[in-house]
Amino acid sequence: MRLQAVTAFWAFNAAGVVVELGAEVTDYAIGDEVFYAGDVTRAGSNAEFQAVDARIVGRKPSSLDFVDAAAVPLTAITAWEMLFDSFRLQEGTGAGNALLVIGGAGGVGSILIQLAKQLTDLTVIATASRPETQDWVRKMGADHVVDHRGDISAQLRDLAIAPDYVAALTATDQHWAAIVELIAPRGHIALIDDPQGLDISIAKPKALTMSWEFMFTRSMFETADITAQRDLLNRVAEILDRGVLQSTVTERAEVLTPETLTAAHQRQESGRLIGKQVLPGLSA
């Protein structure tokens, strides 16, 4: 299908209106409002129009405008797949277990905390180092907050919590030794960043599981369950429309231009962004 889109940083997130349909598309009609995270092997969303595989497209939450909706798909898919595919949790489970989210104030962390609190019974600990980011992760629903610039292991010991699950969202190579020390035996670590090197041998005594979460895998390889992304986006939209989840947008540009796109990249690379930043479409 082809859509007129609003983009959210990162450049594959978008929400838009269907303007053209492929011959085999049956789930959507011209004029439908949708949101999606695209396919990393194709052109992204830094454009007014985009062609996207209908199997990874969800219906836009009616309670959000296009700008707020555009901030959701990539982070929501990543968080959902981490919880329910990587960790193999089921909704309503997790009582007595804990999840540590390293980098809780970022885009993925912000929605992961919310999904974990709303859809599972996990105790959620989030890391954040500044007063404003600590306030943010508490707003997202974190039960406890620790400072990742300090000794994470010691702070978890003070809380008397050994998390069963660790979502390593940033600087995994810097925190790796601490993660292995603090996680419960037979725990599961899922990561999304690209550490230069990890000594996985130190994870053997605790029989830990480690996995990568990459939300583009289904679209890149057209996996047999590719429509799972459509289904989970529709579920996330339904939850948003019930007011259970809140938008993670904290910054908006006025319009998508080379200048605002460059500024967005610079802001993202600063490592100080809270939540998500969004760039409206060219015709906004």
Order of secondary-structure elements: EEEEEHHEHEHEHEHEEHHEHE
CATH homologous superfamily caption of the largest domain: NAD(P)-binding Rossmann-like Domain
Number of strands: 13
CATH class membership of the largest domain: Alpha Beta
Number of domains: 2
Tags for this entry?
single chain; 284 residues; Quinone Oxidoreductase, Chain A, domain 1; 2 domains; six-stranded parallel sheet; 32% helix
Q: What can you tell me about this protein's structure?
A:
By secondary structure, this protein is α/β, with parallel strands linked by helices. It has 2 domains: 2-72 and 217-279, Medium-chain alcohol dehydrogenases, catalytic domain (Quinone Oxidoreductase, Chain A, domain 1, Alpha-Beta Complex), CATH 3.90.180; 75-212, NAD(P)-binding Rossmann-like Domain (Rossmann fold, 3-Layer(aba) Sandwich), CATH 3.40.50. The protein is 32% helix and 20% strand. The chain is built from 9 helices and 13 strands. It has helices at 66-70, 73-86, 107-119, 131-140, 152-159, 172-182, 217-221, 228-241, 258-269; strands at residues 2-8, 13-20, 33-36, 49-51, 57-59, 98-102, 123-127, 144-146, 165-168, 188-191, 209-212, 249-252, 276-279. The strands form 2 sheets. Strands 1, 2, 3, 4, 5, 12 and 13 form a 7-stranded mixed beta sheet that branches. The longest helix has 14 residues, at 73-86. The radius of gyration is 19 Å and the shape is globular. The chain starts with a strand and ends in a 5-residue tail after the last strand.
